[in-house]
Design goal:
Blueprint (H helix, E strand, L loop, with lengths): L1 H7 L12 H10 L5 H14 L3 H5 L3 H8 L5 H19 L7 H4 L7 H11 L9 H9 L8 H9 L7 H14 L27 H5 L7 H7 L3
Helix pairs in contact: 1-11, 2-8, 5-6, 9-11
Length: 226
């Protein structure tokens, strides 16, 4: 299944736009309860205005809230970003730490966010257990765990650490494009032959193909049957 995922999504990546570890942490905080697309619409102006942790720590709340309002829950997110900036300044000289145990002490940063930052900003392997990842690995019976930390460790035991970050991206890509929560595109899925949950969604190719999304759609459909 991993080999098929590798073939299906060779260009999988973090879909949040960022240019530094700080920008990535901020983008992940903003991504809660909204889409990466919406976050990417907001962050160019935000990153131009707030360039350092100290900028967030000393931000004008009204201005910050207005900039991030389109992402939803903007008051809570503004508080999180201001506290995040202050913690980075006070404890880490304004720099985003490179260790999981330090990252998770920051306001608004849990293991999921920490692993996103480690894998994508620092090249340190990490498994990102978001909603898509947890849903798919249970559907594939890689694990029965519901708890994200237990899922992270269970899947981590199945693959070498060097594969963790890209595996996370590819599973998430597949969850967004093919293996949907309510109606997966089973009949047009490149992983169908190995999937223990085949048949959860429509199995006829023509019907299932209509459900496949994303820029990789033609490539994914071409993989089916070979």
């Amino acid at each position: 299944m991993k080999r098929r995922l590798d073939e299906a999504y060779p260009g999988a990546h973090c879909e949040l736009d960022f240019g530094s570890p700080l920008e990535l942490v901020v983008a992940v905080v903003l991504s809660a309860q909204t889409t990466d697309v919406r976050v990417n619409e907001v962050t160019p102006a935000l990153f131009a205005r707030y360039r350092t942790a100290a900028d967030y720590a000393g931000a004008d709340r009204t201005e910050l809230e207005e900039l991030i309002r389109p992402t939803g829950f903007y008051r809570n997110k503004a508080s999180a970003l201001m506290k995040l900036g202050a913690a980075l300044v006070e404890r880490f000289d304004g720099e985003v730490p490179r260790a999981l145990d330090e990252l998770v002490t920051l306001p608004g940063v849990g293991r999921k966010t920490a692993n996103v930052v480690l894998g994508n900003a620092f090249g340190i392997p990490g498994i990102t257990v978001d909603t898509h990842f947890g849903r798919l690995v249970r559907r594939w019976r890689w694990t029965e765990h519901e708890d994200p930390v237990k899922v992270e460790h269970a899947v981590g035991e199945l693959f070498p650490a060097k594969d963790w970050t890209m595996l996370s991206h590819r599973v998430i890509f597949h969850g967004r494009r093919v293996c949907h929560a309510r109606k997966p595109a089973c009949g047009a899925c490149p992983l169908a032959r190995d999937c223990p949950s085949f048949g959860t969604g429509p199995t006829e190719f023509a019907e299932a193909a209509k459900l496949v999304k994303g820029p990789e759609r033609e490539h994914l459909l071409a993989m089916v049957g070979r």
